[in-house]
Amino acid sequence: MLGAITYRRPLNLIAAFNIIGYLFLFFSDEPYNWMTLAVGGAATFIICSACLIIIKRNHGDEYLILIVSMLLSVGLMMIYRLDERLGLKQLVWIAVGLGLFFAFYHIYIKVDKWDRFAYVYIALSAVLYLVTLVLGRNINGAVNWIVIGGFSFQPSELCKILFVFFLASYFKNPDNLFLEKYIQDKRLRVLLNKVLLMLVAYCNIGFLVLQRELGTALLLFLTFLLVLYVFSKDLKLFLLNSAFIVPGVIFGYFMFYHLRVRVDAWLNPWADITNKGYQIAQSLFAIASGGFFGTGIGMGRPDMVPAVSTDFIFSAICEEMGIFGGVAVVLLCMLFTYRGIKIVLGLKDRFKKILGLGIVTMIGLQTFIIIGGVIKLIPLTGITLPFVSYGGSSLITSFIALGILQAISNPKFDRAGGEANG
Amino acid sequence: MFEIILLLVKVVFTLVIYLFIFGVIRLIYLDIKSMSISKTDNVGFYPYLKLINQREMLDFKVEENYTLRKSVIIGRNDKNDIVIKDPFISGIHAYIMAEGESVRIKDMGSKNGTFVNGVRLNEGEIIPLKDGDNIKIGHVKFLFVSIGK
Amino acid sequence: MDENRKIIQVLIAICSLFFIIVGYLTYIQLFRSRDFMANTYNRRQYKIEENTSRGNIYDRNGVLLAYSKLEGEEQERIYPYGALYSQVIGYSSKVYGKSQIEAAYNNELLGIDDLSQVFGMVSGSNYPTRKGNNLYLTIDHKLQALGGELLNGRKGAVVAMDPKTGEILALVSSPNFDPGAKKLEENWQSMVESEDAPFLCRAAQGLYAPGSTFKILITAAAIENGMENEVFEDNGSIIIDEREIRNSESKAYGKIDLKKALALSSNVVYAHLGTELGMGSFMDITNRTGFEKEIPFDIPMSKSRFPYESMDKTDLAEAAIGQGKVLVTPLHMAMITSGVANGGIMMEPVLVKSIAHAEGKSNKELKADKLGRIMESDVAEKIRVMMQEVVASGTGHNAAIKGISVAGKTGTAENELSVKKKAKEHSWFVGFAPAEDPKIAVAVIVEYGGSGSEAAVPIAKRIMSQYLSQ
């Protein structure tokens, strides 16, 4: 019986975490706000039932959803505490996201021929980018939102997944994707394929830079490099692309003022604390004030940090749940990456393997880039913390990615395939 | 007083997160441990159990092969060597004793019984397995394959 | 399988990145968080202050020197003795921030200790009101009040300290200002612009030529160089490289030894001694006694200056009589005097005696460290005897107290106005008593007060006799 409330049943601990957190929020603030209990109850119910479905129905790996559930709980609690209205919206997004998660799990298994749509992925990304450029709204200095009927959406988020799908299609049979019927000379074809691969990759990155999505651009580039490293037999190609980092960074630094501002703020936020360094300084103040155990949920002042519910949610977690809370989030992300890679290692289907690796590294690196940014370890680039930050687009994309990963993880549907098998 | 209660809540709160992390790590560890038994590298050198059911038909996790490098306990509990979450399998269901070439099976007092070639084992009865024997535990059916095959 | 190996490398790389984050977070928390918390742009500080009733400050005997009163929602800081402690305790104002003890012990006064920092118990705005810790200073209020009274509006400083423990008994500076929040706001602009520099804590930050008080150090160097028993010819003036150095009122003392030269404060003898000793001895003794060094103290303290790159004969002669480029703070002079009184060991000065927790938990006593030995104990003993002679029969005879042996040294420091004969010199006196078992050491400077015996000596005498009669 005792086992039910200790570490043996991680799901119970997620429930316990939510119950303690929301009860504390409820009792620490008078007059009592009954909505806190309602949101807490709903969150606990939605998150726990999603886990239960995965575990009981045996839909593949059960640890991914457990870890993600904990991250969701931490994030939602923080967002609700910062802004009740946002918290409610986030709860709705989580419910929608979980729905999409199951939907994509089944869709992925049903469709099964994902490796044949490479051109579709490219075309779809291109359309999304162009639509953004034409209809894009400038929100917080980044032209990356399209607003349709009061709904704002960030298409670049979806492009991340499309890009990974494209990479998987390409490397399933390396360097044979394009122009198969038109060019007979094999060496020429391989060379052209490589050129086209780089063209697609850098067009993606270029569009993102144009939209000032530096974080996502960096993320895409790193994912591209890693996939290249693992699945391309051509080490030179990997080295060539890695070498692009240095001129790319120098070029960007002198070309884009906002990049220069970010780097300056990173090197010395104290020099211009009221302006360029403001965000990062406020973030560090929040982290420092938390101590090891934090001020307690609802007891700190994370509201002093700008963009605290999206990019800077990690600072708020550090302030109110302490460094231990922050480290726990990092450990959860690490566990997620570990578990994801473990699944990828066991896969026989090459397409799935690439897809899985792409998704896992993308989520892992995204976590690193944003957390590293808010603690001043690396220059700050505005991206969200997956599953934790507020934001519909980001949450839904992460859930779609998770659904695909979940489908891949189900060994019942894993069949050998692809060129370099065995 | 307020600060002390607050501190207490905070510590419990932190504890819950870390217990969770510990719990997940433990489960993953157990998972990997049981996976090492199902590795197929050593087929041919050791006797092994081969799944007869179609995996898609079972709604719980079972591997295709279980190598019998040493004696193993089959059951639903996480601590067993071969963990199968079939509701018709008992916590500790059966014990397979492997000593070199001779492999014997014993029912550990399971509720729904252990069947070898359709015959239910009595409690405590030990039966030697030979190549091609059918073993049925809960919904799961295995084929026993001995060395040299 | 080559791919799987590479995938594992990717896993290791990403996990290392995460570990770097964990490490960096821990580093921030352990080593940087105090700085971040104290940053003036961190608005959380004001929140903490709103919720904390700031601790009281007392003198060594429990006389209340500063406290906070709640007026409506706002806290007001009250200083019952007004300007007397303005340069010791400083001020605590929402608009102008904090200074001196109020700034240096801000965390203690707000009850923020390392433990509550670790457990994150301080930044909350929703906490009920909490109480900060009380501070006990080493200051003796009676001495401080007497010092203020004796300076009587003249510019200058009075420092009294216990030579054995380094505890500061009085630290008076004049002019001063009213540290109350309202007065501060009214007078801020005029005080900032004032030539009198009322914010300057002259006792710890004012830099003055030491005048003849510097001869104590030259005497130590002379004894160390075996010139203790030499006899000098004093004709009332001496010419060194075309620069004439004269005694006060150009008196000629004839043949005198070192002891007599100190007692009479003979500039001729010491200028000569300076050229004899050479730059090496000067560098050695000033280095040992803490010139050009940061001395740890609770409130800001200036470095005493001995800024010579090279010294010609004139420089040596001028420095030997405490003129030229030598500059000291009164507090540093009191420390050097204490060093002589304490058998050659100079103590670190302390201003805060203990921190008393608000809930009456154990007090935290603060003890001074030894700064180091500035001279051998036999040298210190010889100088003590000579300094007694100064008071018994020399320039400091006005400092004599009935029944108590006093050791001391007067000083008359030239300044930019006295050189042009527009004002008198700065008047110095340093000393300690009782000479055999020193309990108090003092350093007094009165700007434009004239010769040492004129202005500084009577103040020092009153301070010492007041303390020893308690």
Automatic annotation (TrEMBL), chain A:
Per the record, GO CC terms?
cell division site; plasma membrane
Where does the protein end up? Membrane
Q: Which keywords annotate this record?
A: Cell shape, Membrane, Transmembrane, Transmembrane helix
Bilayer topology: Multi-pass membrane protein
Q: Which biological process, per GO, is one annotated for this protein?
A: cell division
Q: Which GO terms describe its molecular function?
A: lipid-linked peptidoglycan transporter activity
Segments passing through the bilayer:
12-28, 34-55, 62-80, 92-111, 118-139, 145-171, 191-208, 214-231, 238-259, 312-333, 354-375, 387-405
For this entry, the protein name equals: FtsW/RodA/SpoVE family cell cycle protein
UniProtKB/TrEMBL annotation, chain B:
Write the record's keywords in alphabetical order, separated by commas.
Membrane, Transmembrane, Transmembrane helix
InterPro entries named in the record: Cell_Proc_Reg/RNA_Proc, FHA_dom, SMAD_FHA_dom_sf
Q: Give one Pfam family, short name only.
A: FHA
Q: Where is the FHA domain?
A: 72-121
CDD domains in the record: FHA
Q: Which residues form a coiled coil?
A: none
Q: Which domain of life is it from?
A: Bacteria
Q: Where are the transmembrane segments?
A: 6-29
Would you tell me the protein name for this molecule? FHA domain-containing protein
TrEMBL record, chain C:
Report TM segments.
7-27
The record's SUPFAM superfamilies line, in alphabetical order, gives:
beta-lactamase/transpeptidase-like (SSF56601)
Concerning InterPro entries, the annotation shows: Beta-lactam/transpept, Beta-lactam/transpept-like, PBPA_dimer, PCN-bd_Tpept
One of the GO biological process terms: cell wall organization
Source organism, top-level taxon: Bacteria
| A single cellular component GO annotation | plasma membrane
Keyword terms, alphabetized: Membrane, Transferase, Transmembrane, Transmembrane helix
Protein's UniProt keywords contain Transmembrane helix: yes
Q: Which residues form the Penicillin binding protein A dimerisation domain?
A: 54-118
Q: Does the keyword Transmembrane apply?
A: yes
Q: Which residues form the Penicillin-binding protein transpeptidase domain?
A: 156-464
For molecular function, the Gene Ontology terms on record are: penicillin binding; peptidoglycan L,D-transpeptidase activity; transferase activity
Please give the name of this protein. Peptidoglycan glycosyltransferase
Q: What organism does this protein naturally occur in?
A: Acetivibrio mesophilus
